[in-house]
Structures are given as C-alpha cells and as structure tokens.
Amino acid sequence: MSGLLSGELAGDVVSLRGLRARGRHGVLDAERELGQVFIADIDLAVDTRTAAVTDDLGDAVDYSLVAADVVAVLSGEPVNLIEVLAGRVAAACLAHAGVSAVAVAVHKPQAPVGVPFDDVVITVVRRRADLLDATPARPVDAVVALGSNLGDRAAVLAAAVADLAATDGLEVVGVSGVVETAAVGLPGSEPQPDYLNAVVRLRSALSPRDLLRACRAVEAAHGRGAAVRAVEPRWGARTLDVDVLTCGVLVAADGPGPDDGDGGAPALQLPHPRAGVRAFVLVPWARLAPDDVLPGAGRVADVLAELAAADPSAVADVRSRPDIVLPGSNPRGWRSGAARATGSTSDAGSGA
Ligand SMILES: Nc1ncnc2c1ncn2[C@@H]1O[C@H](COP(=O)(O)OP(=O)(O)OP(=O)(O)O)[C@@H](O)[C@H]1O
Ligand SMILES: Nc1nc2c(c(=O)[nH]1)N=C(CO)CN2
Questions:
Q1: What is the pTM of this model?
Q2: ipTM above 0.90, yes or no
C-alpha cells in the first residue's frame, strides 16, 4: 500500500498496516450489539535522524506502543461515525511525543452497505494543530465547569455565566444548579474555604483552544489573571476556575504550543482528565444533562453512579444550594427549554 502521507508531508514516515480489532462503532442498533472488525493503517510523520545515530529506542517512536493505543481506540468506546473513530486514532498517535503528523485510514469492511462491496475506508490527515486549534464548521456542544472559593462566590459565578454568554462565538444553552463542596486540595495543603460549583453548557463556534482562552479571560476578569496564576499553589483557593470539560466528542491532548503572542498556546486536554472523578463536577452536570457523554467514560449520570458506588462520601458531601440561582439556570435541565443566560435570574430552585 502506498504511503498515506505522501504528497502531504516531506520527511520520515513510520507506517503500521492492518491493525485490527472488533469494535461496536456505527449508527445502527445491530452494529452496537454485534460489533464488527475495524482495521487501521497508520503513517506517522517522525524525525528518525537522532535514533539513526544513537540506536536507542528512547530516541524513536515505539511503534508497538502506538499500535496498542490504536487497537485500544478501535475496540474502545463506541461512536457513531468512522470520522470520529479516525479522529480519535489520530489523536492517540499524536499523543506520542515525536509524532508531528499522522495519516489514518480506518477500514470497515463489514459495514452494512446493502450492496456487494469490498471495503469502506476513511482517510484523515492530522497535524498537531488540527485537533485543538481547528475552528468547527458549525457550533458544537461544549461543557465547562465553574468553581469559586474566594470572595463573593455566588456573585462571581453569576458574573462568569454572564461573561461566557457575552463572549463572541459562545452561546450559553444550559446552566446547572449550584452546589457547595469542601475544597479538594493537595494532601497536606492549607485548609481552604468551601467551593461553590456549577456546570455550564455552551454552543461553541470557537476552536477548543480558543474556548479555553475564553475561559481564561473570564477567570482574569474575576481576579485570576496570569500574574495570580503564576504564584498560586496547585489546587489552591481561587476566586474563579473555569475548566473545559468537553468539546463535542473530541478526545485530544497536547502541551504548550508555539508562542501566539499571548504567552503561548495553553496546554489542553479533552475531555478534562479529572472530570470523571470529581463529585463537584458530576453532581451538577448529571442534574443538568444526565445523558451527556463524557468521552471515554460514558453517560454522565452513569459515571456519577459509579463514583457514588466507589466513593459514597464524596458524592454525599455535595450540598445543594437552591437559594443561589445563576442566570439561565433551569431546574428541569437544559433540554426542557432552558433559558439563555441573559443576566436575569430565572426559576427558583436548582434541580437539587
Ligand atoms: N480541559 C482543560 N481545561 C482547563 N485547563 C486545562 C485543560 N486541559 C489542560 N489544561 C491546562 O491545565 C493547566 C492548569 O489549569 P488550572 O490552573 O485551571 O488547573 P486547576 O484548575 O488548578 O486544576 P485542575 O486542572 O485539576 O482543575 C493549565 O495550564 C491549562 O492550560
Ligand atoms: N470542591 C472543590 N475542590 C476543588 C475544586 C473545585 O472546583 N471544587 N477545584 C480544584 C481545581 O480546579 C481543586 N479542588
């Protein structure tokens, strides 16, 4: 088979062909129930010049590790579209340091096509910047988490929702009730005031990284700019934290990027790596949108149930604050016609 990357990139290429696994990807119920074979061909753009001198595996991209990660995606969480599957395979490859770009062909030779055929193949080419810096062709669902444990916490959260709603490219489509939670700090750290936490659903026309930048701008407007961030302890008390939990179904991660004139591109991992183990995130999120999916973990309400089984006190300790109503909050959840956040308070109650 000819190189997938040929014509796309100059340089060295490591290829893996015919990686295969059974998966349950597809739109049809039968595909979800029975599963079928998925095959991936991969071209990894790498720079082999150092390894060629040192003969040290540490200077090379270990193709067996990449292969294992690709097979884990093929056999992992079911998705509807092979476009998503190919994108996740590409992200898994780009997670390996030293892979600067990747071409992925995903084959679905047993697809329910309805006529005799040999194969369905989708080929995608991704460079690092394609995953987290691409502006979507149409707005996508995104979910962010708010937390505050310094200052007038309720006022800060309300202002943060209004700020998000006022950001170009963002529309607030759902706001959870507010919960109060003991600060989860690092072991041995100073005691901190309790947090108020909430979750906000957005329609985002921004790239994932620009969404993170927008969240940073809202934090900065409430006393947590770059200077404060630079000196605060990890998981220390803060006036406002705005974390990106999900951006559509995207699974991707990268570190700081080249300088973009604003101190560089902030590191971003999606979904947020700790979303699935935080009661202060899952409780308000599951009340707002229980059927949302946390990529890689499952339905939010199910992830919360698993956490409640594993760590009952963490979930039990989340206290509802129905007396605090954020702009746009709807106690019946966003699907039931949640108001848009316009800065006005809405229904009393928090869905708690
Ligand atoms: N999904 C994400 N949302 C927000 N920040 C992220 C995300 N993924 C990676 N980051 C990076 O995490 C780093 C720490 O961010 P921040 O100071 O908000 O962390 P934190 O809120 O103290 O801790 P935690 O990330 O555990 O919530 C930042 O450099 C940011 O670029
Ligand atoms: N209860 C609670 N604890 C935390 C929180 C938070 O939002 N709520 N955020 C943290 C870092 O983002 C660390 N610990």
A1: 0.84
A2: yes
